[in-house]
## 1
Amino acid sequence: MTIEQLIGLPALLGLMNETTSGLPDPLPEAFEGTERKVVGNAARLFIGYGQRKTPKAGKYGAPSVNAQMEPLASKDVIILSFLESLPIDPITFQRLHDFDNFNMQKMGAGEVARQVGLFKTKFDNARKVVKWSNFRYGAVYLNSAGDLLPSSSGAATDWTLDFGVPAGHKTQLDFDGNGNIIANLWSDTTNANIPQQIENLQVAAAK
């Protein structure tokens, strides 16, 4: 064995990422919602109802008519938990040196920061996937190993989070029984009348 093989150090040229970290979010910021700190995994949502009624008219100076309080509902929920930890061996990382100099621990500190950043990104990705799945299916699907799934295929029954979205508000949006608002897939460039479907959506939303 040569001296080079025994004590020579390879030239380190730096780190190249093959994949960009994080998932791009196509939804507007309005869908991001508000973060709330919760102790435990049980919480209660309160459901309010918008106002589309008009007040009663009367003769000028006449006594007013009492109105009724608007209803308020509640729903108890179990919050999805993600449970992973990242073990870091301090001895190994203390022995690493940097790309630009051979001082011990330099590379270790940078690599720990990189690993922790990637670990945090996994949880950020999970929030996005849960949001997208809820927006697409009205449910979140996981397998028995706790992996988020892109559809109900392979989902475990006790790992399916159904948000109770009515069937008429899914897929082609036959929400009032008068026919599908989304009559054709928008990828069907021959038959899909997208401007008309958007107009129908706006009319339906105003009902």
## 2
Amino acid sequence: MCIPSNPQILDVRAVFLYSRDVDLRPLDFPISNCGNCGLSMSHYDQICVEQVVLDSPIQSDLLTESPLAQAYQHSLMLSRDSKPPRQEILAFANFSDTEQAYAERFWSDQTQPVFFMTLLNLGPHADLSTVEARIHSIFDAQTLVYFTFDYNDLVIFHKGSSFSEYVHKLLKVDYGGNDSSAWISDSITLYSFPESFQTSSNAMTTPEVFGAYLRMGVANTSVMEEFRQRLLKDSPSTEVNYILGRHDIGFFQPNATLEWIKAVQELIRSTSQEMDKKAADLVSPIWYTTSTLSIRIPPEESLPELGSIVWNGTHIQSALRDSMKTAYEKFCAAYEDTRYEFGITADDVWLTWLKTGVQQAISFLENDLTQELGLCLVPLYQDFLHYSTDLWKKLEPLVSMIMISIRGAFFEEKRNVILWTCSKTYPFLWIA
């Protein structure tokens, strides 16, 4: 990943993806007063974005004072105080004075009813700056692009009121880059509705009509039946069906609007509040287990009209084990040289754990059942080994302190990647 040179202002944002607690009770809203916290209707119940304020100025190149280390330390401190299960993504952007002013206006804007966030993975030959330029040429307003050192490469933040407009622009980003330097290998879009959307009048809604499919898992049949009856009373054209799969029952509204979504959110909230009042008389105060809202947008163009892409899949290096072994040995050699030079006691337990983790990541990648998890972990280990090898060769005598920071940040980030992947690929394995 290349980072723009000569940055003027580094803007860092921490994205927190909250899920309901292990007892599946709804989260109190809002969970944060950051001003960019919204209710989501997917595996995640809330999305919050907070600014990470860095110490200024940076006095040296030491890892403990670098912007990246400060951002991850900020995330680690917050995670220790977090009660609901959550995952974090740290996003970075280099802005000019004018761009920073625009970013501040973007993050303070509370007039739009939908907050979109798309996580992009670039193709093997894609260029970061080329993709970023394409995004800006397609999304001309109310959009910011940040890069990340997590599993993804870029994050698109957008505030708007039209699902259709966002979907069609995103498809152009995903499939319109005919040159391999602009190819996207994967994109995941999350969206949320700000607190102001819940409490505002119809001023935040638009006449846009789309298909909306709410799927839910049943935990209390009688309460779900009450919910169904109330929903059909308010929206008679809603179709109800049973589902084979992750969810149990679905509610499809072919002519949904933002106002319809707002009404459904309020109905879910009021039903949960009524359950809380009856909690003492119930075996369990839970009436649904899972809930996912899917938006259906009619296509404006066929996929070939968007661009000509023939994706050959992820090319797994045939000698992957040998290359990872070589990277690990180079890391250990650089670590040992630095350790001897500064008289640091070897952390053999951690080195053994790292070696085992590398082998396990490769095993995941080579297994069809766990390949998605391996695709997350192998690049993480590769980047870590290559970066750390170079780092050990350049360090000054605060190595022991820096070693602790590297180890703690790496462990936490690996856990974050695993939780993210499992929650999307193996939702039945999700553990809070």
